[in-house]
Amino acid sequence: MAKLDTSAVSFKNINSIAIPAIIAGIAEPLISLTDIAVIGNVEDNSVEALAAAGIVGSFLSAVIWILAQTKTAISAKVSQHLGANRLHAVKTLVPQTIVFNLFLSLLIYGITAPLAQLIFSAYNAEGLILDYSVSYYQIRAIGFPLTLLTFTIFGVFRGLQNTSWAMKCSLIGAVVNVTLDYTLVYGIDGLIPAMHLEGAAYASLAAQATMFVMALWFFFKKTPFHLKLSLKLNPEFKPLLVMAANLFLRTLSLNIAIMLANAYATDYGENYIAAQSILMNIWLFFSFFIDGYANAGNAIGGKLLGAKDYKNLWELSKKISKYAVLIALILMAICGIFYDQIGILFNKDEAVLALFASAFWIVLLMQPINAIAFMFDGIFKGLGEAAYLRNLLLVATFLGFTPALLISDYFGLKLYAIWIAFLVWMLIRASGLVIKFRRKYLNKEV
């Protein structure tokens, strides 16, 4: 038997993709966390503003995740063709995907912006929280096309096994957001009036524009692709849309779980949704952090599949699992040490902090499970296994999360009900992916 060449899945190769991807990945939730931290400490109506930022942030994440599935699809296609040494075959696919996403994002903006009040009423928002949600969203939503196009370009970068370009764009975007957050929310005496929640929205919009311009620069200067549109559809365009559609349905079911969680929290009261906003954004922050290794699995896994290198594919799954779980344990330890201090970063209201602290331990407990689920999720995306990912999320959401939430809510567990449901959800996702991968690829490795 030929000696296994593990250079493709070496510690250095994996981390050269994973570490920049981690930094790039946490930049987006960092923008939302910064908004929440700054808004939550504004003296006037901080609880209502914090609740509105959390509701809108959840909806924006849902829409962006759903629409950005072409990012994952184009990444898989580029990486597979890179592994097969056929990168020329997708040169017209890239601009066609970018143009498709431009029209899609404009369509979604045109539909959702006028219906913002109706949308956030469905989250049980009312009164001042609803007013804040509508005004905040209508500004942030202007950045839809910028965000979706940026993410699509990031997918091309990842397919080329490079996540450092996306990292640089995201870091600069985060710096712009943090700087403008403090400037526009609080204002500068005699120069800039305090804009409160709307100021945070404009800061986020400026950050999105910055990342888009930088992404375009790297695209033209560093990649072999172009934006010249061919009217003849690339043969991979239809398979890409099928894959994206499956991932779209998967992500839709994922965000139904998040929407239900926020709707229940809002119904429990403003203190509950404020606490839930903090918990959810920390959970998302951790998820994007761990997801760096999932990105490495996505990029390298697709390349290995294109090269039909199943031995290294199995080796990849073992190594990335170890790294992702280690990261999760480190995050748990840090948060355990500063358990009582973390909530204060986002809000000073004692009732909100008490609710946050009461449920935060469940969020921490989930992290190793999340690590396994996200890591295999990334590999499966790179392998093009979109249909299985779709079916698994549908099962996890409607046969796991939803019943767990309804039963726990019936017994009056409130915030506990929400996070018990998320724990059940992640257990189903992780176990389903591990079992499927072992059955399909372990035998091919031998």
Automatic annotation (TrEMBL):
It holds the Pfam family MatE. One of its GO terms (cellular component) is plasma membrane. It is found in: Cell membrane. GO terms for biological process: monoatomic ion transport. The keyword Transcription regulation does not apply. Keywords: Antiport, Cell membrane, Ion transport, Membrane, Transmembrane, Transmembrane helix, Transport. GO terms for molecular function: antiporter activity; xenobiotic transmembrane transporter activity. It is a multi-pass membrane protein. The keyword Secreted does not apply. The chain crosses the membrane at residues 49-68, 98-123, 135-157, 169-188, 200-220, 240-261, 273-294, 320-339, 351-376, 388-407, 413-435. InterPro entries: MATE_fam, MATE_MdtK, MdtK-like. PANTHER family: FMN_FAD EXPORTER YEEO-RELATED, MULTIDRUG RESISTANCE PROTEIN NORM-RELATED. This is Multidrug-efflux transporter.
